[in-house]
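Standup notes
- DV: blocked on the single-chain target, sequence here:
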Amino acid sequence: MFLAVDIGNTSIKFGLFEGKTLTSKFSVPTNRDKTPDGLKLAVGDRLSASIERAIVCSVVPPIQTAVTSFLREATGVEPTFVDNSFDFGLKINYEPLESLGTDRLVAAFAAVEKHGAPVIVCNLGTATTIDVVGKDREFLGGIIAPGMSAMAEALHMKAARLPKVEVTRPNELLGNSTVDSIRSGVYNGYFAMISGLVDMFEKSVGDDTRVIATGGNAALAAAECDSVDEVDPDLVLRGLNALSRT
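- DV (later): unblocked, structure below
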């Protein structure tokens, strides 16, 4: 059994694989102050299977020590942390390389392995990243923007009279109250941003480019954005599994 772990800003995702098959998955909230014992309590007995290898992708450095200690105790193996020195089979056009999030590289690698190149990868979570891999498997770069919740939180924090609003799909495009106006602005503005950026990227790499969405808002993006071709919620986990076998 192989274990892949994706440490994100909001949640830590665990995936158990038999060969190429994802047999089970679960997640726990990311808490930067969590201890190994806290992780053990959150995970419970869901890692009871015999695990031979473990590989981890992280964008939250403060929790990595606790995760390492927890995995050592829970699985009896030393986890491997992916860094940017790994061979992703891509020509990476990004400077400095060490500043590029490993989750973005793993997702790009996974998308190319499954769909070929060119491909556009939209990772829609706490932060929004959209990355482009050209036809020659060159990681051309991408964008980083706030996620939907971060947009709503920023409005509340930076504008004294604007309330904090739970973002859901608005009933109407034009809000007739402050809450409805914020909800429409964040929700519709967010997906207009995704559609607009993907459209601009496709003009430079070709209209036949596959657009893959992953992350917490991926399913919503597929419903709201005609440009999204496929939703793959396990893209990073599958990429970690594939990367461990290259």
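- Follow-up: The longest strand covers residues 21-29.
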